[in-house]
Specification:
By secondary structure, the protein is α/β, with parallel strands linked by helices. Helices cover about 45% and strands about 20% of the residues. The protein has five helices and eleven strands. The strands form three sheets. It has a five-stranded parallel beta sheet, sandwiched between helices. Helix 2 packs parallel to helix 3. The relative contact order is 0.08.
Amino acid sequence: MTIPTSASTTGVPPIVLFVEPDRDTLDMYSTFFEMAGVWVAKSTTTDDALAGLVDLRPDLVVADIAGGAGLEVTDFVHTLKSRDDLHDIPVIMLSAQPAVVASESLRADADLWLVKPVLPNELLTRVHELMRASSALRDRSRAALRKTAELKDHSRRLMERSQQLAERFQLARDQSARPCPTCGHVLEWIERGCISGVEYDYYRWCARGCGLHCYDLTAEKWVKLV
């Protein structure tokens, strides 16, 4: 495949990959497109085109279903559209037959179907139209992905906040006042301590003279200290 030498430079013109088995047709289209300021990558075989597709990342692919190469081109386009890293590249199919006679899968793979003969200026117009539409779709897709990421981040923060509130609520509930087991008077929580691996909540003296109690959190029962 013939690849533009400066294809990796930023701010470059659009790159169109032609997969065309007929060299005369390939030269006709590529000459016209290059004169119009479009960079052209050319391939007469699908294997060659697919091998350089990942590194090249063209803005659009024009694939001609011609003669005996029709099945190979069909497989090439289907492979392109089946890959996550390539499926967003728009594809124009050139065929001597209308789209209605093509298989459903092939019609689904093609972003645009043109019946030959297609004049170079007509093809160039369609290429620019499809690239603009594809660019707009990619922009919307990126915006949607950003929005989704923002929503996920917001949801994560809400979950973290909810967890913090739940922990605070649990702590407040654990440290809440309890009624005296003897008289029912409210005992004020003081602190939590651990003796021999057992956690206790300590409370103030009962104001009604019932003594000093602590609550065994493991056994969930009161223990009278004094």
